[in-house]
Each structure stands twice: as C-alpha cells, then as structure tokens.
Specification:
- By secondary structure, this protein is an alpha/beta fold.
- The protein has one domain: CBS-domain (Roll), CATH 3.10.580.10.
- A hairpin with a 2-residue loop joins strand 5 and strand 6.
- The protein is elongated, with a radius of gyration of 16 Å.
- It starts with 12 loop residues before the first helix and ends with a strand.
- The relative contact order is 0.20.
Length: about 150
Amino acid sequence: MHLMKPRLRDIAVEKAMSHPAITVAQDQSVQEAARLMRASNIGCLPVVRDEMLIGIVTDRDIVMRLCADNHAADSITVSELMSKNVSTCNENCSLDFAVHEMERNGVRRLVVTDGAKITGLISTDDIAKFCNEPLAMAMTTIHENGRSRLRVVL
C-alpha cells in the first residue's frame, strides 16, 4: 500500500526548516564563519547586526569571492563578503510558496523569519523530503549564464 505524502501547499515551512538558525555577526572574520559552517555541517550563515538580518554568506561565496582571489580569510570580515540581497519567507508560509520564492530569486535557500526574528533556514534539500517524486526528479539546479536557477518538476 502506497501512502500519499501531503501536498507542498499544505505544509508550513516551520515543519520542514532547519532550526534554530545559526548566525554570524557582520564583524566576524570569514575564517571564523567558515569554521562555524564546518563545525555545524552547514553551507550558509545569515549575517546579523544587533540581531537584525543584513546579509547571508555561503560556502560558495567564500570559494568564489575569497579563495579564488587569494585573499586571507582571517583578514576579511563577513560583511565584506556577504550577499546583501537575502531571500526570506515567513515560517507560516507553505512549502509551495517557498519553492516559488527560491525559483523567482534563483536561490536554493531561504532565511525563515517570524516578523523581524530569524527562526531558521529552509533549503531545497529540506523541501525534497516532502516530495512524492525521487529527489533527482523533484528538484534540479540549472546553471544559466553563471547563475544558479532552481527548477521544480512536481
């Protein structure tokens, strides 16, 4: 007997997100951020100033913007490297909405909020756990003109 999984539009982000969100302060070094990512086995960190979201730094940012240009990770702050345009969603929105936000913004992760408070992160991997199809068919990342773009096939 095959049990149907609920539809993505019927599941709130808070049910699938990783929480609590591990954050990094804007004035911490990139080396400290990378060590925190490694210790926590995560690929991104929301960047905060006085507990307010001001950016995001990913493992890819560190490789592409720091290592590729041969900068010293201990001498660059997270605020110098972070992406300032952060895609977010409310923890009460549906997974379907989160997928569409990822696709619209060309990202694989969203910072989850409750008002101004950061409550977690949601990624394509988190959402794939709720899909009926195998992961390989449910979500794929397409690289177009050097930019990642999420494509969802449900």
